[in-house]
Specification:
Residues 11-248 form the Luciferase-like domain. With 278 residues, this protein is an alpha/beta fold. Helices cover 38% and strands 19% of the residues. It has helices at 14-25, 51-61, 79-92, 110-113, 121-140, 179-186, 202-215, 235-248, 263-272; strands spanning 2-7, 29-32, 66-69, 72-73, 99-102, 144-147, 152-156, 170-176, 190-195, 223-228, 252-256. The protein starts with a strand and ends in a 6-residue tail after the last helix.
Length: 278
């Protein structure tokens, strides 16, 4: 069981410091948002930094924690460029990179809806799937090619390969119980679960775990994540919040405070450390 902290915001100097503090406090992973410009009535424009540069700074300040974006909107990125960015980060961190991926908050991020990016779910899903196929080939260090509806890659070899083998772990968003979404998850290394209708429950996580065990053909490790908020000053209550999800089968608890971006409060929670289950 691992515990991650999603840093909801901060300035470009503070976020790498938070990552180092999270490592010192016993967290197992540190994650940051991938956005270009959040611009909605509820969330006016605020600071958004490039995730790969920030994650590089975070890698330089840490030695143990897993690092990654939460969630990478890869439909708007050129796959071969993304392959080099993620491979480089994997090498810099000595194999501590993971890649959670999804369609992106297209209606909230001006980096989608104000610049002409693909907005339909179907279109973004198709772009994401092709991008993942190209990443898988590029990270291998072997010759690969790709011929799709959106991307065309002639036979090529990108060196060096990723440190992690067979690849950098990919955790797609999986919408339960939507069959097409869940079939995508089976091809990769983990799931960031969402529910088609209603709120996710531990029983849903248990069903997802059973579905994966019954249908996944790969023998590599598979992670199930869930995010929420626990009080750092009340260990018993924190344990009570997390325990049902652990019992249901998650492998990562993600401490997420998306609505609280006050740096002092976020840093205090980081320093209090992850919830502990006896």
């Amino acid at each position: 069981m691992r515990y991650g902290f999603i840093i909801p915001g901060g300035d470009v100097q503070t976020i790498p410091e938070m990552a180092a503090e999270a490592e010192a406090a016993g967290w197992d992973g540190v994650f940051i948002a991938d956005c270009i410009s959040i611009d909605t009535p509820d969330y006016p424009p605020g600071p958004c930094y490039d995730p790969w540069i920030l994650l590089t700074l975070m890698a330089a300040r840490t030695q143990r924690v897993i690092l990654g974006p939460m969630i990478a909107a890869i439909s708007r990125r050129r796959p071969w460029k993304l392959a080099r960015e993620t491979m480089t980060l994997d090498h810099l961190s000595q194999g501590r990179m993971v890649l959670p991926v999804g369609l992106g908050a297209a209606s909230d991020d001006a980096g989608f809806y104000k610049v002409g990016e693909e907005m339909s779910q179907k279109g973004r899903a198709a772009l994401m799937d092709e991008c993942l196929d190209i990443l898988n080939g590029a990270w291998s260090g072997e010759l690969f090619s790709h011929e799709g509806d959106h991307y065309h890659v002639q036979s090529m070899q990108l060196l060096p390969p990723s440190v992690q083998r067979p690849r950098i772990p990919v955790w797609p968003i999986g919408v339960w119980p939507r069959e097409k979404s869940m079939r995508r998850v089976l091809r990769w290394d983990g799931i960031v679960p969402q529910k088609k209708d209603g709120d996710m429950t531990p029983e849903d996580i248990r069903a997802i775990k059973t579905y994966v065990e019954d249908n996944r053909k790969l023998t590599t490790p598979f992670d199930i994540t869930w995010e929420g908020e626990t009080p750092g000053d009340d260990p018993e209550r924190a344990a009570a919040i997390v325990r049902p999800w652990i019992d249901a089968g998650i492998t990562w608890w993600m401490e997420a405070r998306w609505n609280n971006t006050a740096p002092d409060e976020v840093r205090e929670r980081i320093r209090q450390g992850p919830p502990h289950i006896d």
